[in-house]
From TrEMBL:
Keywords: ATP-binding, Nucleotide-binding, Transport. Pfam families: ABC_tran. Residues 27-251 form the ABC transporter domain. InterPro entries: AAA+_ATPase, ABC_transporter-like_ATP-bd, ABC_transporter-like_CS, ABC_transpr_TagH-like, Bact_Polysacc_Export_ATP-bd, P-loop_NTPase. GO terms for cellular component: membrane. This is ABC transporter ATP-binding protein. One of its GO terms (molecular function) is ABC-type transporter activity. Belongs to the ABC transporter superfamily. SMART domains: AAA (SM00382). It comes from the Bacteria. Gene3D superfamilies: P-loop containing nucleotide triphosphate hydrolases.
């Protein structure tokens, strides 16, 4: 059992909202509906018996798709909403940053907005005095603090609002989807701050869709789905669960694309019995090869080739692709194709392998559907846990290095 103190305790929290189902100005109709038991609204249950604990010093991630209840949960923790059932206990001063610039007044100067926003967060004038220089230095807006906020660019406003939140000396910091604020230089500065905060032992609760950020900063995480806790604990495992959950709709999109392509061809089938098989393990290191096999039957005397891609599931971007037409095959009959490639110098990737069969004009004839699309994990095992630059994943497309083996 941990000796750490509890910073935030969410205890069996439930929350619902009343959504009107009809609008009536008639008193008679309202009374008739009341006697019939028609409420005029329906209950939307956003959170259902949520429980978890955040210990002092945790960098705690809250994950979930849009509509899962994450923002409602944050507003309950921040005491903006009151739960229907359960309770939330926060030990210490809470600084909540749910939306950029909330509480800022465009008619006031940057300096005045800092003091006003600090007061809204519960700090005294003396406490804000002590934090003011740090806030201004981090935002890099010293020469603009006596100008009205309405004269700031949007980027300047974002920097100031974010700096107030993260530099306010609270015991618990809550951040909702704010890791991409500002320009590239400011984002690097924020990254350095989060790494320092992680080491400092200060408590942070982060809501994000960026699984790379979850793995980089968080030591614990919880996944919310349909208002329920689906997974909790190790951030790597929770992030993987989130990524797997999100592959289903992506696969469905690919399936629908293939169906539309087939309809456009007036349902003329020229390739059938397509099968994709991964020949190497799902979990590999960058030093390992990736090998897979494709089998299919060509029903007409046409030329066909394979196009393939490896897509980063977390960011939904291509990491590797090959549509070079190097594997062009002629004639009808059964085709077997092997492909081998490697992804050196990358780390911490979850990829889906997608393959299509195309004719010489690029028309898609067959594709790997959701039941055939393999998921591949690639991780280095030769780096120290605190080597953050080496731990980072690939940032762009890897140069093609694969080779084909074909058999009719």
């Amino acid at each position: 059992m941990s000796d750490k103190k509890i910073a935030v305790k969410v205890d069996h929290v439930s929350k619902f909202f009343k959504l009107p189902t009809e609008a009536t100005k008639s008193l008679r109709t309202s009374l008739v509906n009341r006697f019939k038991g028609v409420k005029g609204y329906k209950e939307q249950h956003v959170l259902k018996d949520i429980s978890f604990e955040v210990e002092e010093g945790d960098f705690f991630g809250i994950l979930g798709r849009n509509g899962s209840g994450k923002s409602t949960l944050l507003k309950i923790i921040s005491q903006i909403y009151v739960p229907e059932k359960g309770s939330v206990t926060v030990n210490g001063k809470l600084v909540s940053f749910i939306e950029l610039g909330v509480g800022f007044n465009p008619e006031l100067t940057g300096r005045e907005n800092v003091y006003m926003n600090g007061a809204m967060l519960g700090f005294t004038t003396e406490e804000i005095d002590a934090m003011y220089d740090d806030i201004v230095d981090f935002a890099e807006l010293k020469e603009f603090m006596n100008q009205k906020l309405k004269n700031y660019s949007s980027g300047m406003q974002v920097r100031l609002a974010f700096s107030v939140a993260i530099k306010a000396q609270g015991d618990v910091l809550i951040l909702d989807e704010v890791l991409a604020v500002g320009d590239e230089a400011f984002q690097r500065k924020c990254n350095d701050y989060f790494m320092e905060r992680k080491k400092s032992g200060k408590t942070t609760i982060l809501v994000t869709h960026d699984m790379g950020a979850v793995k980089k900063y968080c030591n614990k995480a919880v996944l919310i789905e349909h208002g329920l806790v689906k997974a909790i604990g190790n951030p790597e495992n929770v992030a993987n669960q989130y990524s797997f959950d999100n592959t289903a709709p992506l696969h469905q999109d690919a399936t629908e694309e293939g169906q539309h392509a087939a309809e456009a061809q007036e349902e003329v089938v020229r390739v059938e019995n397509f099968k994709l098989q991964l020949l190497t393990p799902n979990q590999i290191s960058p030093a390992d090869e990736i090998r897979f096999q494709m089998d299919f039957d060509v029903l007409e005397d046409i030329e066909t080739y394979i196009a393939l891609s490896l897509t980063d599931i977390d960011r939904n971007i291509w990491i590797y692709n090959d549509n070079s037409m190097d594997a062009m095959m002629s004639g009808k009959g059964h085709k077997t194709v092997h492909y081998t490639c490697s992804l050196p110098n990358v780390n911490d990737l979850k990829m889906k392998l997608e393959v299509t069969v195309r004719d010489k004009d690029g028309q898609m004839l067959a594709f790997s559907d959701a039941t055939q699309t393999p998921i591949i994990f690639i991780n280095r095992k030769d780096i120290a846990p605190d080597d953050t630059s080496a731990l980072d994943s690939a940032s762009g497309l890897i140069q093609r290095n694969g080779h084909w083996t074909m058999k009719d």
